[in-house]
Write a structure and sequence with these properties.
Blueprint lengths: L4 H4 L1 H12 L2 H16 L9 H25 L20 H7 L1 H7 L4 H12 L4 H8 L3 H16 L9 H17 L2 H7 E10 L11 E2 L1 H12 L4 E8 L2 E8 L2 E10 L2 E8 L17
Parallel strand pairs: 1-6
Antiparallel strand pairs: 1-2, 3-4, 4-5, 5-6
Helix pairs in contact: 2-3, 2-4, 3-4, 4-7, 4-8, 7-9, 8-9, 10-11, 10-12, 11-12
Subunit structure: Interacts transiently with the RNA polymerase catalytic core formed by RpoA, RpoB, RpoC and RpoZ (2 alpha, 1 beta, 1 beta' and 1 omega subunit) to form the RNA polymerase holoenzyme that can initiate transcription.
GO biological process, one term: DNA-templated transcription initiation
Protein name: RNA polymerase sigma-70 factor (ECF subfamily)
Length: 287
């Protein structure tokens, strides 16, 4: 145990920043900057260190998100969040696992910066409206309105229903095995008819620059990929949900499927090597 509130809450602060930014590298920068701010504070005068630190991190992340907006507009192909290798223990907190999933972070990218901050603080971390108002510089009444709009926006775009974790893992394991062998029939069985693959290569490596839609096209695409020499596919946990790591000739791809009603409805494939630096280091996420 430690008496330093920053050290005690560091995992929480990283999780807040990562939820805001979808980038572990940017989240780490924000956490580091927040430590510098914290070091300059008369900590004896801080009544609630946890809330104070969350405010610092959220404000810094909000500024960083606004600065990154133009950069992401110019991104080559679809922009997907940076995946984090996590332990299955994260899934014990089902709400946290859902909110840090690649699928949810992708939805959060469709919110404006202030809306995202309000949604993350309220829906993920259950922050009181008056505290959120202080962070985003608005009245509590305005924050409530923003929260309602953001909640409706996210609800219309998030996966339609939660799935049993064992069912999800079984579907992902079947998918991973089918990709390993190029078994088209098994792929067709585990993929939903309207399945969509979204790939992020960032212009750094080969990747589809537009989503691939439909079970036949997706199964054929994945079967072709399986014929590449030296392909190895293994299951892994990314962002609190079952996924797959595919290695081809030393280049990794993090795959995060969305499972609904026992079938995979979306496949997020992150191939940009600049986003894959944490595939061998387990991240600690916390609320």
């Amino acid at each position: 145990m430690t008496d330093d509130p920053f050290v005690a809450h560091r995992s929480l602060l990283f999780t807040v920043a990562y939820e805001m930014l979808g980038s572990a590298a940017d989240a780490e920068d924000v956490v580091q900057e927040s430590w510098l701010r914290w070091a300059d504070v008369d900590q004896a005068q801080v009544r609630d260190p946890r809330a104070y630190l969350v405010r610092i991190v959220t404000r810094l992340a909000l500024n960083r998100l606004r600065a990154l907006a133009r950069q992401r507009e110019d991104y080559v192909g679809p922009w997907l969040p940076e995946p984090l290798l996590t332990s299955p223990d994260v899934a014990v907190d089902a709400e946290l696992a859902e909110n840090v999933s690649i699928a949810m972070l992708t939805v959060l990218e469709t919110l404006g910066p202030a809306e995202r901050a309000v949604f993350v603080l309220r829906e993920v971390f259950d922050t009181p409206y008056d505290e959120i108002a202080e962070v985003v510089g608005k009245t509590p009444a305005a924050v409530r309105q923003i929260a309602n709009r953001a909640r409706e926006h996210v609800a219309a775009r998030r996966p339609r229903m939660r799935v049993d974790r064992a069912q999800q893992q079984a579907a992902v394991e079947k998918f991973t095995a089918a990709v390993s062998t190029g078994d088209v029939q098994s792929l067709v069985e585990v993929l939903a008819p309207d399945v969509v693959v979204v790939a992020d290569g960032g212009g750094q490596v080969a990747a589809a620059r537009k989503p691939i839609t439909g079970v036949e096209k997706v199964a054929a695409f994945l079967a072709r990929a399986a014929r590449v020499p030296d392909l190895a596919a293994t299951t892994a946990w990314f962002n609190g949900t079952p996924g797959a790591r595919i290695d081809i000739g030393g280049a990794a791809t993090a795959v995060s499927p969305v499972v609904e009603d026992g079938r995979i409805t979306r496949v997020y494939a992150i191939r940009n090597p600049n986003k894959l630096g944490r595939l061998d280091e387990v991240a600690e996420l916390r609320r």
